[in-house]
Amino acid sequence: MSTLTLERGINAFKAQIDAPMASFFSSCVSCGMCADACLFYTENPEPRFTPIYKLEPLRRVWEQEYTLIGKLKAKLGLSKPVTDAELAEWQELVYNNCSLCGRCTLICPVGNDITYMIRRMREGMVASGHAPGGLIGASTRAVQIGSPMGVKLPALQAQVRHLEKSSGLTVPFDQEGAEYLLMLSSMEIMNYPEYLGAVAKILTNAGKTWTLSSECFEATNSGIQIGSSDIARELVSRVVAAAEKLKVKTVISPECGHAYTALRWEGPNLIGRPYTFAAKHIVEVLDELRAEGLLQTEGFEESKLTFHDPCQLVRRGGVVEQPRNLLNMVAKNFVEMADHGTLNWCCGAGGGVSANEDAEEVKLKAFQRKKKQLDELHVDTLVTACANCRIQLEEGMEVNQMDIPVLGLTEMIAEHLVERKGGAA
Amino acid sequence: MSLNDIPVHSASITTGNLRPVLHEIRHAFSELIAHGTHGMIDLHSLPFSPQEYAELDEFLGEGEIDLTLNVLGKTRLRESGYAGIWRVEHFDDNDNRIGYFIEIGHVPEILRSQCDDIKEGLAAMTTILAMEEDNNEDAIT
Amino acid sequence: MRMQSPNPYEPTLGEHLRSQGISRRGFLKFCGLLASSMALAPAMIPKIAAALEQAKRPSVIWLSFQECTGCTESLTRSHSPSLEGLVFDAISLDYHHTLQAASGDAAEHAREEAMKEHYGKYVLVVDGSIPLDNPGYSTIAGISNLDMLKEAAAGAAAIIAVGTCAAYGGLPKADPNPTGAVSVSDIIKDKPIINVPGCPPIPMVITGVIAHFLTFGLPELDSLGRPKAFYGQSIHDRCYRRPFYERGLFAETFDDEGAKAGWCLYKLGCKGPVTYNACATTKWNDGTSFPIESGHGCIGCSEPNFWDFGGFYKAISIPTGASGKNAVYAAAAGIAAGVAIGAMNKKSKAEAASSHQTVTVEELNQESGS
Amino acid sequence: MNEVDFLLWVKGSAFNIALFIFMAGLVLRLFEILSLGRKVNYAVPKGDPMQGGLREIFRRFGTDKATFQRSMITIVVGYVFHIGLFVVIFLLAAHVEVFKSVMGFGWPNLSTPVVDAFAVVTMIALVVVLIHRLQHPVKRFLSSPGDYVAWAVTFVPLLTGYMAYHHLLLSPQMMLGLHILSVEVLLIVFPFTKLMHTFTVFLSRWYNGASMGLRGVKS
């Protein structure tokens, strides 16, 4: 059986390097501003956690393989090839200390998309066998079981039965021709089952047809996090197959950041063709319903609350206004953090950090950034639209003995929903 | 047509050298009073615009004395409006100005009779007087 | 100028001038003007007077090689009795084949005699460059310039290289230098050489150098062998148009408004900023003006290689040679090399992509398990 | 070789060689970068990549307030020396003449003392930049010899140009020669060092902006 080797890793680097990356590496002037943009540096200020430095092995491969001067240097023995030991050393930087949040990409004065490069670099890290165990486990479960957390269909079915009984709603499975295919994340099934109820209530009330798929309910994609297109392709293909089999118009990505990136942006490129359906985040769908007048609310949250923007939604997804539109429907005392929207700071656990046991300590350090933001505001409630963020935020609050409940946006909207007459078709 | 007939347009400009020179003159002036030092400033080797030459002239003004010497071509000595400050202009045979100095002293150096000339004059006068007296004696006898 | 045969009693310069009917007052005027011409402070005038009074009239041998006689013209055209004339009168010019009355063998004889008589004491003045490619390019009385220079230099107290040709090679040395012309200092290494460059040099400067040599000996020289008193500052430094340069006001053509207003001529190729000479203060034509006053930029004639300085009408900062075309050729070469290296990169990347083996979870676990 | 020979050499063949390497290197490097290509993107765009690219090219000249406060020295001093370099390189009369001779067209110049003042400010800013680089833990850590080479080849032409103009240390001819030579060194190393960011910065911003535009991210 084949094994993962340094050679395969370097080969993956070579295959991944493209014109934008060559331009980015050529443009970097070592100004260090990306360090100040990165919470893994600001909360743990060791120079090696500077975002651009995390790419150093990839940069060297680029220089040695794709530049005249680099080839010359290598011939003259002025530069050394990247070693397996170096990649092993870099695993900590590329996985534990990067949540692919894209803040460095936004701040970089020369316009380098560092996040994009780290995502690409992980391809080589995986191929050379330098991916963290936690992500390997999650990927393995995702491929073999269908869920990174090992959630199987019966568990979901049990949830659904419980929900139907308690709410009187119908949760359809495998309904061909439905408008929406609702995808879930295992985190929601296990930690926040109320999400499914909230969406069921809103969609049904809006008179939309929707369905779950018994063949594929998992929207998260460990392949994206570990950085293996091969695994990511396998996982996203299942969603595409389910959606196309049921001939839905739209696939709804759950309240999860990277699932949106995987489904919305990487998916078509992984399968090498455009989808036959649209892919939207639940917040986008809710905002569309709001605009169409199919989503109306009553009453307001009394508490002072703020919204934590999931990085993949704002910086990597362009979903900034929608959650605010929704929040303003139900909150009178909504305040923004100093850095919000595209400038928001990551919770500290995205991009595979939450699934990476090696990053346990680091991610709590990184949470300090969010703590500082929250301490400035003195809010009663924190709302977000990503289950992964939500887990990290709750854990961080608990460790830091902060007493601020974290709510999902969809659930909050569902609580204030006004029943439409003749809504339930 | 002579050179002066050619119309020359020159924008009014300043080299910035005028002020320092005026201060240099004032300094030499005070040195003359304090220590009796004779001062001399060579204007020819300084880049001056025509306008600045005119401004300098205007600043110094005219005094009582305007002498012309006939020494290797003309030399013109003019006391300025300030007693003790002299303009000394040297000309060649074709009346081209070949030297321009400001002298600060009781009289310009060149006006003084030179010591060697005075000595030589004394010697000459002595000889002539002696010769005349010899002749007179010869006449008497 | 007087050609005179060696005299057993050598009068001092002061005595000589007085014998010419010049009073002490005249002498003082002369010294004042000399100080001004040597760019010395007026305070130096008494010292000059004292030194000149005591100086001996030196024997001067003037050799003319590959030259145009412009330097001699420059000197002799100055109106007499000018200061220059006075200084020139103060020397004993024993050989100058353009000016002397004697000709043929008699002239050469005078030279040989003066060299013998004043061996080790005479001043050798040279104008013109020396051809090295073929001695036949320039000869005097059948003697090559090179041989004559070497012979005359051997007994000289000092050499004054008058004009840019003698000082740096000048016009004969201009590209492609068909005669293999060189300067005096390229040949003579063991004698003090004072370069008095200019094409021609300012007459006042030639005599000023001679006067300095007579009064205070060898003047202080710059790195190009020129007396600092005359060549210490650039034309640009003493130019009356300098304020326009500072204000960034330049004539763009010889007939535009800027030119009429007397703006700086830098863009029209003025070499003033890199040319060292006394033109801006000493001026030409008996102090009438210097080229920039006439509306033409300095051509840099007192600098080595001024003929090859990239064109009289090109600003100094402009590179010589066809730069624009060069850039186009370079871009073409870049494209050719770029296409080649781009193809290599593409191939290399395609190979990497095709040799990619799909990563499986089995592999992942095997690796992490090991 | 006397100083005039030296000056003629730097203005003549040396300049031609340097310009050749610079131009050829520049084109070569751009080919090197662009030849690596980009994959077709099959994701349905939310916005216009072209618009996003153009927007980011300009937007990144500015920054948000918090980032500005965090990286104040880098940004302020960086701006000062970049503007200074622009003024000194492109607006000194002597330099305009060089561009005119190479490219065939020129543009108006600033007065010399103004450019001179910019040169002084730029040099001070560059020294501050260097000290900051040596003292700032991240910058020092990130800096490779190439970063210092890029600094040096930028600083030396400024210094020699300033000294030539003010007749400091050496004769102005020698200094002018050294100044032009230092610029030639700059030209030669330019395409192969970090200095290349002068051009690729727009490419990088465009690529990044295009990606943002595609995703509908408005910053």
Automatic annotation (TrEMBL), chain A:
Example GO molecular function: 4 iron, 4 sulfur cluster binding
At the top level, the lineage of the source is Bacteria
Q: Which UniProt keywords apply?
A: 4Fe-4S, Electron transport, Iron, Iron-sulfur, Metal-binding, Transport
Q: Which PROSITE patterns match?
A: 4FE4S_FER_1 (PS00198), 4FE4S_FER_2 (PS51379)
Question: Pfam families from the entry?
Answer: CCG, Fer4_8
User: Would the keyword 4Fe-4S turn up in this protein's UniProt record?
Assistant: yes
Alphabetical list of InterPro entries matching this protein:
4Fe4S_Fe-S-bd, 4Fe4S_Fe_S_CS, Cys_rich_dom, Helical_ferredxn
Could you tell me which residue ranges the 4Fe-4S ferredoxin-type domain spans? 18-48, 89-119
Instruction: Give a yes or no for keyword Protein transport in this entry.
Output: no
* Protein name as it appears in the record: Fe-S oxidoreductase
Which organism is the protein's source? Thiothrix caldifontis
UniProtKB/TrEMBL annotation, chain B:
InterPro entries in UniProt: HupH_C_sf, HupH_Hydgase_express_prot_C
Every copy of the HupH hydrogenase expression protein C-terminal domain together lies at 17-130
Q: Which Pfam families match?
A: HupH_C (PF04809)
The UniProt entry's sequence similarity note says: Belongs to the HupH/HyaF family.
- Can you name this protein? Hydrogenase-1 operon protein HyaF
* Organism field: Thiothrix caldifontis
Automatic annotation (TrEMBL), chain C:
The reaction(s) annotated as catalysed by this protein in its Swiss-Prot or TrEMBL entry are: H2 + A = AH2
Named from the GO MF annotations, one term is:
electron transfer activity
Question: For [4Fe-4S] cluster 1, which residues are the binding ones?
Answer: 68, 71, 165, 199
Q: Where is the NADH:ubiquinone oxidoreductase-like 20kDa subunit domain?
A: 68-212
Q: Which residues bind [3Fe-4S] cluster?
A: 279, 298, 301
Checking PROSITE patterns in the record gives: TAT
Q: What residue spans carry the region label Disordered?
A: 350-370
UniProt xrefs under InterPro entries: Cytochrome-c3_hydrogenase_C, NADH_UbQ_OxRdtase-like_20kDa, NiFe-Hase_small_C_sf, NiFe_Hase_small_N_sf, NiFe_hydrogenase_ssu, TAT_signal, TAT_signal_bac_arc
Q: Name one GO biological process term.
A: anaerobic respiration
Q: Which residues bind [4Fe-4S] cluster 2?
A: 236, 239, 264, 270
What cofactors does this protein use? [4Fe-4S] cluster; [3Fe-4S] cluster
Cytochrome-c3 hydrogenase C-terminal domain residues are 231-308
Q: What is the name attached to this protein's record?
A: hydrogenase (acceptor)
Give the source species. Thiothrix caldifontis
UniProtKB/TrEMBL annotation, chain D:
Q: Which Gene3D superfamilies match?
A: Transmembrane di-heme cytochromes, Chain C
Highest taxon above the source species: Bacteria
| UniProt-listed InterPro entries | NarG-like_sf
Sorted keywords for this record are:
Membrane, Transmembrane, Transmembrane helix
List all membrane-crossing ranges. Answer: 6-31, 73-94, 114-134, 146-165, 185-207
Query: Could you identify this protein by its name?
Result: Nitrate reductase gamma subunit
